[in-house]
Amino acid sequence: MLSRTADNLFWLARYTERAGNVARGLAVASRMAAISARLGDEVAEWRALLTATGGDAGFYRKYDAPSEEAVVHWLVFDPDNPSGILSCFEAARRNARAVRTALTVDMWEALNDGWNHLRQLSPGAAEGENLADFLGWVRERVTLFNGAAQDTMLRAEAWRFVHLGTMLERADNTARLLDVKHALFTPEAEGAVDYVQWQAVLRSVSALRSYQWVYRDRLSARRIAELMILRPELPRSLAACHAEVSDTLEAIAVGQGGRMGECHRQAGLLKAQLRYGRIDDILAAGLHTFLTEMITRTDALGSAIDAFYIRH
Amino acid sequence: MRAEDGVRAAYAEIERWLRATPREQLDRKRREAELLFRRIGITFAVYGEGGDPERLIPFDIIPRIIARSEWERLSAGLRQRVRALNAFLADVYGRQEILRAGRIPRALVLENEGFRQEMVGITPPGGVYTHISGIDMVRTGPDEFTVLEDNCRTPSGVSYMLENREAMLRLFPKLCARHRIAPVGRYPEELLQTLKAVAPPRAGADPTVVLLTPGPYNSAYYEHCFLADEMGIEVVEGADLCVQDEVVHMRTTAGPKRVDVIYRRIDDDFLDPEVFRADSLVGVPGLMGAYRAGNVALANAPGGGIADDKAIYPYVPEMVRFYLGEEPLLANVPTWLCERDEDRKYVLSNLDTLVVKLAKGSGGYGMLIGPHATKAQREEFHARILARPGDYIAQPTLALSTCPTVVEQGIAPRHVDLRPFVLSGKEIRIVPGGLTRVALQDGSLIVNSSQGGGTKDTWVLEDEGPGQEHPQSHSQSQSQSAGA
Fold it and tell me: How many angstroms separate the CA atoms of B68 and B3, rounded?
């Protein structure tokens, strides 16, 4: 496959996944803000979300304070935010348009219809009462795209680069969403935290119900961290995402007669560490330290993939 | 006359259908068509004019119909014309016999911008220059088609021929079923065969073919992707290709891969910054070296612009006679070259009846349509022609045929032209159909999509019209009984 095509496929999947994750983050933050409003610290939720999406520097250059209106506008419509939902859809479609021939019609329509709808929306369509519906719609579009890719793509290299993009982005996002709340996972916090906070963390990765199925017990910090980092059954856990990333890279290598490089080594190492890691060790060393390292290494892996397959 | 009757019968059927279909339903179908095109993403990119850069070319739901016998004549004429154009290109970049014989003025060719010195002495693989030709024509009378211009560089529009048919089949399946319409869907396969046929010999049985595009900002980018997809080949940009030791490779995830045939949709000027324009960012440095070494085929060959130049156009009938020893089957529009003293005198004193065009122009820009022009406009062209006579040609206004078209007020006749696509590889192939462009303004003769023209589906009928007996479908049993 053309290197440029692989690049476009990888990024269109990343941007699509990112749009979905920003919508998840927004949905949880808005729910939490509504709950904490009575305590008068709803701004903390919005501030945390900005940190998680990694765009706080850009935000504070344009806005004074993280009010709900400002954060929603920044994360949904603002063209200056490359990780905003509109920007993500636009970038995903731009990448898709450049590789129309490598996409199935269903994938293209999922992206193009979504983009056509989104660019015609007035900002009011994602405000106040409308926000929840809008975010639900974004998640539906992302699910539709993922389903279209899953259901219609030939299991060849094009599919693998799409899947690689989705999984790498998802690993990054889960680490970020968890890191926002890392303060909840210190030994001092145990017991003092509002149950609602735990629920919010799990909800951000659609894992509230899954938690009950896996542990059949009340929510605890240790288990939530274990579920989101190490449990292979949870499709958004770091372990699950990095296993997919590594396996997909292996599959690409097999398709090319075993050609491998640095990216395969890094991916394999991440997969193994998450496969055999222990949650108590991670928590003892500090969750924030661990997640920061994960985010950095996921980023480095992205660069290694780029160096090996794209810009050689 | 049978062709005329067939087309009339076919239109009569369409007319019955139009009369039976309420206006609201037609409008609904029009909106559906637009939605369909928008959804599939068939757009025409217009950058730098403000507004939505991804525009739709208006699609008219009433098809344009050509009778079988009319098509037979037409395609015979097209084959002849394209054979002559290819022979001309091989000649002017080779022995230049037509110039030596004095049949075309030497200076007109050798001093023409379309003539590429870089191509002299190169014999392209298979000896073919214009692999894909789009011949623009108008119907000027019963069984008479006149060529407006030839396109031997990178003609576009074939995706509309294919997608317009798809749209008609989806929107009006019953209407389509009532006619025996020659299918056009084979075009991509025929194109791929044509491209493979001109691969360098060492490429072997399964040559690697790619489509080279200037990128997503090109107005025909959708078409590039569409065609590549249909053929199952890669769409590459200049940066995806690199030349090493006079061999072209594309950058793939598995490392460099050798390329044998390039269907290029980039103008000559931008192909190779080492040979043509040095500031080209979309080309491939070293490409012409690989081409000269015979390691890669380019379709169309560089330098084809000399064959479709508007100043050379009047000589195409002469090419047919010179190279093929035949009389041209397709008519040319009488053309005056303002460069020639006598022609210029005639043009200047007849500006109110003539159409004046830029010899190098395309897209319907910079034209004077005498009968519709104001006195001031005619005076402006008078001055321009005197200042740069070599830049202008003039032609009489033609009695273009019209086709019923859906407009604001209802159904009205609008002028149409036709661009069939002629493929030249080992043999010449023409898919029965083409791109019909329609001038949507009342009385307008300009059909270019950049000037508000639209398109129609083009139906070449397999028989002489619907709603009557189909002698063909009974013929087998008849011949069997005759033989028994």
Answer: 7
Return residue ranges of chain B for CATH 3.30.1490.270: 334-396
Per residue in B173-183, pLDDT tens? Answer: 999 998 899 99
Q: Which of A121, A153, A185 is the last residue of a domain?
A: A153
pLDDT digits (tens, 9 = 90+) for B223-238: 998 899 899 999 999 9
Cis peptide before B300, with omega less than 30 degrees from 0? yes
Using a CB-CB cut-off of 8 Å, the residues of chain B touching A100 are 41, 222, 225-226, 229
A98 interfacial to chain B (CB closer than 8 Å): yes
Is the predicted pLDDT of residue B482 greater than 50, yes or no?
A: no
Q: Do A310 and B253 touch (CB under 8 A)?
A: yes
Print the domain residue range for A223: 154-312
Residues A275, A287 within the same domain: yes
pLDDT of residue A40: 63
Closest CA to A267 of A231, A308, A236, A235: A308
Tokens encoding B445: 């003769």
Question: What is residue A309's predicted lDDT score, i.e. its pLDDT?
Answer: 96
Q: Are residues A24 and A144 in the same domain?
A: yes
Given a cut of 80, whether residue B42 has pLDDT beyond it is: no
CATH class, B334-396 region = alpha beta
> What is the nearest CA distance from B254 to chain A, expressed in angstroms?
6
Residue appearing with tokens 């079923």: B177
- Nearest chain A residue to B231 by CA distance is A101
CB A149 within 8 A of CB A13: yes
> CB A2 to CB B251 under 8 A?
yes
**Chain B contact set for A5 (CB, 8 A):** 234
The rounded distance, in Å, linking the Cα atoms of B167 and B243 is: 41
Number of domains in chain A: 2
- Judged by a CB distance cut-off of 8 A, whether residue A1 touches chain B is yes
Q: Are residues A181 and A109 in the same domain?
A: no
Where a domain ends, among A133, A153, A173?
A: A153
